[in-house]
Amino acid sequence: MSLRLGDIAPDFEADTTQGHIHFHEWLGNSWGMLFSHPADFTPVCTTELGRTALLKDEFGKRNVKVIAVSVDDLDSHNRWTPDIKDVTGSEVNFPIIADPDRNVATLYDMIHPNASEKATVRSVFVIGPDKKIKLTLTYPASTGRNFNELIRVIDSLQLTADYQVATPADWQEGDDVIVTPAVPNDQLESKFPKGVTFVKPYLRTTPQPNK
């Protein structure tokens, strides 16, 4: 069954390149980004895992734990990680789940038979501290993910969680944000001391609250 936004992210136990984990326990009170790759020793994935490692500090300051998965086994992962460092200059500093039995791939509906009967598609799940799925993205095997966009979306999700705001089209860090409809007008002054602009009665903007 497909997972939808707001669903509890399925829990699981698995072996990883950083030891055995119980997924929900491993997440703790952090945000999480679980992303799959079709196979080890593939060109696009090599660049992606290197890019993820390079962004460790960016994910860290957002309290996001990242974890990758493919249907390859642990030995394959361990043989591949030196290639990632050689190609990208970044040592893999996050766990890669070994999923040769496809348990995690099945839980998260990562096998799409019309794309491949045995390899995972390039999926991304962003999971909140409440263990609920906040974002799902699925890319074809040929297209590398835009990690700047993933960081942007995480920033937007965290603003919504903390301040009852949404972000407009093409929003970037530091731009004005939108007050969600759930906030009544009589609470605007107390919640948004930087001020609120009424563009339309249903469209109210305010400077980014955490800047």
Automatic annotation (TrEMBL):
Domain Thioredoxin intervals: 3-159
Keywords: Antioxidant, Oxidoreductase, Peroxidase, Redox-active center
Record bears the keyword Ligase: no
One Gene Ontology cellular component annotation held by this UniProt entry: cytosol
Domain of life: Bacteria
GO function terms (MF aspect): peroxiredoxin activity
Protein family membership: Belongs to the peroxiredoxin family. AhpC/Prx1 subfamily. Belongs to the peroxiredoxin family. Prx6 subfamily.
PANTHER family xref list: MCG48959-RELATED, PEROXIREDOXIN-6
UniProt name for this protein: Peroxiredoxin
Gene source species: Spirosoma terrae
